[in-house]
Design goal:
Low-confidence stretches: 247-254
Radius of gyration: 17 Å
Largest sheet: 6 strands, parallel
Mean pLDDT: 85
Number of strands: 8
Strand order of the largest sheet: 4-3-8-7-5-6
Helix content: 40-55%
Order of helices and strands: EEHEHHEHHEHEHEHEHHHHH
Structural class: alpha/beta
Number of domains: 1
Strand content: 5-15%
Length: 254
C-alpha cells in the first residue's frame, strides 16, 4: 500500500488530514495510479468529521485513506488552532484537475452516483471540457433496493470491476459514500476511488456553483444552502464542530 507523505499529518477531532497543496494532491494521485490496488481519497469537511463520530465505516475510511484533503474553511480553522496551515482543496476542483490529468494520460474514468441521468450528463460535460477523457462507465446511485428496477449493489461492484477504472468518482450521500468505498475498495478493481458528494449535480448543471468571490470568502456552503434549504438541518452541526475543536492541541502522528 502507498504510504502517506513524510509531512506530519494534522489531527482534527482524532481524524487525520493531509497538509498538501492541490498540486501535491495531484502528484500523489499520479503515484497512486501507478500502484496495483485501490487507494482512497477523502475530501474532509466539519459535517463529515462529526458524522464519523457515529459512523464506524466513515471513521475507518478516514483512518485508512491514503489522502485526506481539507475541503472546508472549518477544517482550515481547526488546523490553525494547532498552529498548522491547510490549503482548502475543493472536491469538485480536485475532481476536475484529475479529469484533465486523465485526459492527458489516457486514464480510465468511471462515474458512480447521484440521481438517474446525472452521472451520464456529468460524463458528457467533462468529455467536452477535456477532449480525450476516457469514460469507461457511468451509473446512478440508486442500487440498494431489492426491486427489479435497479441493479443490485453486487451487480454495480462487478460492473465497476470489469471496467477497470484508474479513477472512480463516487457521488453518494454522506456518511454512506466514503464508508462504502472503504468497505468495497478491494473488490472495485480501481486504482483510485474518491468521494465527490454533490459535484455531479454542479458539473451536470442541476445546481449552480457559488460565485468566485463567495468561494474566496469561504461562503460556498451558504450558496449551496440557499439552493438546497433542506440542508439547514445538517448545518446545525457546524457550531458543534467549532465548539469541539476549540482549544484543540496537536496529537502525535502515527
Amino acid at each position: 500500500m502507498v504510504k502517506n507523505a513524510s509531512v506530519k499529518r494534522i489531527a482534527i477531532s482524532g481524524l487525520w488530514v493531509d497538509p498538501v497543496t492541490e498540486e501535491e494532491a495531484v502528484d500523489r494521485v499520479r503515484s497512486f495510479v501507478e500502484g496495483g490496488e485501490c487507494l482512497q481519497i477523502l475530501t474532509a469537511n466539519p459535517l463529515m468529521i462529526l458524522a464519523a463520530e457515529k459512523d464506524d465505516g466513515l471513521k475507518e475510511a478516514f483512518r485508512s485513506a491514503e489522502l485526506v484533503v481539507a475541503d472546508s474553511v472549518g477544517i482550515q480553522w481547526a488546523a490553525r488552532l494547532q498552529g498548522r496551515r491547510l490549503e482548502k482543496i475543493s472536491g469538485i476542483d480536485l475532481m476536475e484537475r484529475l479529469c484533465a490529468e486523465a485526459a492527458g494520460r489516457g486514464w480510465r474514468v468511471y462515474f458512480l452516483g447521484a440521481a438517474p441521468g446525472v452521472a451520464e450528463d456529468t460524463a458528457r460535460v467533462l468529455i467536452a471540457r477535456y477532449p480525450g477523457l476516457n469514460v469507461v462507465g457511468t451509473h446512478h446511485g440508486y442500487f440498494k433496493g431489492k426491486d427489479n428496477v435497479h441493479p443490485s449493489e453486487e451487480d454495480i461492484i462487478q460492473r465497476i470491476a470489469q471496467a477497470k477504472p484508474d479513477l472512480l468518482f463516487v457521488a453518494l450521500p454522506t456518511p454512506f459514500q466514503d464508508g462504502w468505498i472503504h468497505k468495497n475498495r478491494a473488490r472495485l478493481n480501481a486504482k483510485v476511488a474518491m468521494g465527490v458528494g454533490g459535484s455531479f449535480d454542479v458539473i451536470s448543471g442541476r445546481l449552480r456553483r457559488a460565485p468566485v468571490w463567495m468561494r474566496a470568502a469561504g461562503l460556498e456552503w451558504l450558496f449551496r444552502l440557499i439552493q438546497e434549504p433542506q440542508r439547514a438541518y445538517r448545518m446545525r452541526g457546524l457550531p458543534v464542530f467549532l465548539f469541539k475543536t476549540f482549544g484543540a492541541r496537536p496529537s502525535k502522528n502515527t
